Amino acid sequence: MGSPNASRRQWLHKLALAALLTVPLGCLSPTLPLPPPGRPDVSPPDGSGITTLIGRVPGGTTAIAFNLDSGRLVGQVTDDDGEYELAMPAEIGDQIAIWYRDGLTESGAVEVTVPATQADLGPLGGATGSD
Questions:
Q1: Which of 15, 24, 54, 84 sits at a 20 to 30 Å CA gap from 8?
Q2: Cα separation of 41 and 60, whole Å?
Q3: Backbone phi, psi, residue 101, to 5°
Q4: What fold, for 41-117?
Q5: Closest Cα to residue 51, out of 109, 124, 108, 127?
Q6: Sign of CA dihedral 119, 77, 60, 100
Q7: Residue 104, pLDDT above cutoff 80
Q8: Please, which pLDDT band fits residue 106 given cuts at 50, 70 and 90?
Q9: What is the pLDDT of residue 13?
Q10: DSSP-derived secondary structure letter, 121
């Protein structure tokens, strides 16, 4: 049998190796997504084809809108109040996904439809979604 110090050293070596192998696995665990933002107010396109999305996300995050029909993407870093106003080219009926990002973590998205008139907005903002 080996000396007690040698056994203890081997045990500590194995423990350290196990710890080193386990730590990276903790980094691979999935991060839960942030909750989606509330539905924004969406304006119909103006005379130059620009629609405006106005809403709020957690302060200090980046609000992002992606026009699923045209492939256009816009974003804005928000102040502490989290309010954003995004202007993007869009046509009536275009589907736009809105989400926010906090560092490397993204929220779920909400989708809205660009309305034909301001009256097409739902009670919570955003298009009513009736097609």
A1: 24
A2: 20
A3: -130, 135
A4: Immunoglobulin-like (2.60.40)
A5: 127
A6: positive
A7: yes
A8: very high
A9: 64
A10: B
Please tell me the total number of residues recorded for the chain in this structure. 131
Which residue pairs from 124-127 have beta carbons closer than 8 angstroms and sit at least 24 positions apart in sequence?
124/38, 124/39, 125/38, 125/39, 125/40, 125/41, 125/42, 125/54, 125/55, 126/39, 126/40, 126/41, 126/42, 127/42
Report the candidate in 44, 87, 79 with the shortest Cα–Cα distance to residue 62.
79
Residue written as token pair 């816009």: 74
CA dihedral (90, 91, 95, 96) in degrees, to 10, reads 20
Residue 53's pLDDT is: 98
pLDDT at 9: 73
pLDDT digits (tens, 9 = 90+) for 67-98: 999 999 999 999 999 999 999 999 999 999 99
Helices (H), 29-111: none
Measured between alpha carbons, how far is 15 from 21 in angstroms, rounded to an integer?
10
Within 8 A by CB and 6+ apart from 89, the residues are: 49, 50, 51, 67, 70, 72
